[in-house]
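STRUCTURE REQUEST FORM
Protein name: DUF2993 domain-containing protein
Source organism: Micromonospora endophytica
Requested output: structure tokens
Priority: standard
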Amino acid sequence: MEHEQTYGRRPRRRGRKLLIGFVVLLLILVGLVAVADRVAVSVAERTIADEVSQQVAQQNAQSAPPEVEVAGFPFLTQVLDGRYERISIRLRDVQGSVQGDAVALPSLNVDARNVSASLDTLRTGQGDVVAETVNGTGTISYQSLAALLNREGLALAEQGGKLAVTAPVDILGQRLTVTGTADIVVGEQGGVALKFDNLDAEGLPDAPLARTLVNNFARSISVDVPLPELPFGLTVREVVPRPEGLTVTADARDVPINAAG
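Status: completed
Returned output:
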């Protein structure tokens, strides 16, 4: 009886071993596919970075080498479909090709959504890689803005959600500290202007000439901000003062993100 019971267990053991072997093989295959997927992503990211560098140059701008991240898993199914969920691009030290007085963006984060790129385009390098929407966010430091205004001792900062200014000014023989805020105006074509219309100074003499001098100073520091031409046809939509600087938000639609576009 014992011999029969022992004999009856052996097929179950062999079946269990076969099942374990199958699971191990399956895990190995999944691992290989995952590795291949990540390798393909890495190659795609390097290729897109090269294309973006050319695109930036064509837009009369320059930056440090782009940092690219292709989102979505698995990546290979996106390749076969010819459509990618999201491609994130980070550009550092964005500035105009002609230095001049253009204000540099220390970083510009670009988020391209619903990117179309056929398998044939990727293979041959011919054709367009087009993003349905592109959104960009960058920050202008207050130090660079203050340097643009070129007034000794002038400082800019965020205060209560507004762009605040503090500057020493000589008024009727007195050294006074002028303070106030600016309105930030974004034009239809994406240009940005600072309008200082409401400045005051503690101890300001009660004389029309003193007020005129403060108003003249306000006009002298009300300027158009010379932003570098943004890549991908991005147009500035909003500028918001934040503790770290002016945050610039820009967008565009149906944008070619490769040099062929």
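Reviewer notes: The chain is about 35% helix and 40% strand. The radius of gyration is 30 Å.
Form closed.
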